[in-house]
Amino acid sequence: MTRQVFRTLLIAVLMLLPACAFAQDFGLSINAGVKKKIVKGLNIAAAFELRTQDLSSEMERIDVGLDVGYKPIEYFKFGVGYDFIYKYAPKHETDSMNVVDSYWSPRNRVNVYVTGILPIGDFELSLRERYQFTHRSRSTAKKWNSLGVAQEDKVISAKNDHEFRSRLKGEYKIRPVHLTPYLALEMYNDLTDSFAVDKLKVTVGLGYTLKKKHGFDLYYRYTAGIADAEDEMHLLAVGYEFKF
User: Fold this and answer.
1) How is the chain split into domains, by residue range?
2) Is 138 exposed, middle or buried, given 0-12, 13-18 or 19+ CB atoms closer than 10 A?
3) Sheet holding 92-93: strands in order across?
4) What is the mean pLDDT of residues 65-89?
5) What pTM value is reported for the model?
6) Between the CA of residue 226 and those of 45, 51, 74, 220, what are the distances in Å?
């Protein structure tokens, strides 16, 4: 049975690769995490993510997060989370023909969320509403002109982002083989810009649970940049979570 499951996961990866292979904005994500049950309905989870960009040729971000979730009843869950994000900006040329060196930008993110859950047999539909605050710390980067002469360092100012994220997710549990295919649609709204839609995400994935302790996840995600075209991205991700 286990061989059949991993064969299914391999086939899914091979099917997703053609959708990403020719996309210039293609990245890979590796996720790992642990989840601990404190009492009935209350869980604490820690997660780590490593993500690449630009046809996976360079780093995009490192993310370490902590989440506390509470599910008092079957149909409702709420929680709070924190993430430290180390985001990489590659070397690039400005409109004035200057060259800005690559740099890392640290970010602190806090979120609170509420999820409504509607189970229908083996099918489950959920709607998650999340408020997200992100603080980007001030950074500097080396800069040169077109002749290679050093210029005054570029200063990337500190910035605060306030976003409201709505995610609709449907999943179906195939119990004999512990597989869970799912589809999720998520919309970002910028609270500092009259609730304008910032970007959209579509995720297609497949989860697998082994002995109730080991959770594996494989998904493809397309992000459409609405406010900023540079946010557009195709992402292929694999993840693992240990529950105890």
Assistant:
1) 2-85+123-131+164-243
2) exposed
3) 92-93, 99-100, 139-144, 150-156
4) 97
5) 0.86
6) 31, 22, 35, 19
